[in-house]
């Protein structure tokens, strides 16, 4: 337990797994009670140590050497962590090369951000707030990528090097996400959420996937149903559709880039779907949930990364006559206060 009292990512590393699971279930129940909802947590599925395949670290250049790690809790202090117990072994093996990258990329005056994603083809590395690239620095950066053996390397939104496309499996499809794109943090957590969503929407022939990302749910759903995927970033919907085109035997998938906060799908647009999947960011999806309730979509699979906004949205659906199934907590951020969950809302 070397870092629980310093690193903001592992504030509960000193506690037992059963205690943390109970604590996280309690967070969910507390959020529901705050909205006057009676609910049940059926299970807590916790990803194992060393399974975090995507993470955003911070790096700071020192007079001699560099720091690389997560921030301390509620602080801008970078906690150097050479023995992180949450990142995958493949990402941890990159640490010496990443320390070299920090020294190469970081200005003296500020820290840089490094988003790391493990893929079957190798690591996808994105560095942000780095020094401006000139010709010499670009050459040094490309040489770093070759020596580190990463699949793709992006510097301040500029693609510097790519030896292989850093694809991710999504059901039968292979998807190459845009640099730094959102993915579920662990493979185990993603598999659990996909299984829950597939079970919740079983029997549906037309499914709306709202806040679809690059197709985590849409592409597995397309094995048995037609899917319309909606996501705010066009680069993500393009990656989803490219993956769909390359996968044999899937049902039809359509996609649109649309800001669901400002322009949610209206009830009339939702009427053709017999199920919907919604996986919003931490703010939840108040406007979109109101339209889902108005449309009366028979089944809604709700995936959430914030129990408070989930409970607020759940109250709207329950008031519209939906029934909420027992909730599954999917803990991809073990030892942290972060809680993810999934459940089904159904209406006769």
From TrEMBL:
Coiled-coil zones: none
Protein name according to UniProt: 23S rRNA (Uracil-5-)-methyltransferase RumA
Entry EC number(s): 2.1.1.-
Similarity annotation: Belongs to the class I-like SAM-binding methyltransferase superfamily. RNA M5U methyltransferase family.
Active site annotation, chain numbering: 305, 305 (nucleophile)
Annotated positions binding S-adenosyl-L-methionine: 184, 211, 231, 279
Source superkingdom: Bacteria
CDD domains xrefs: AdoMet_MTases
Keywords: Methyltransferase, S-adenosyl-L-methionine, Transferase
Pfam family, one: tRNA_U5-meth_tr
A GO biological-process term: rRNA base methylation
GO molecular function: rRNA (uridine-C5-)-methyltransferase activity
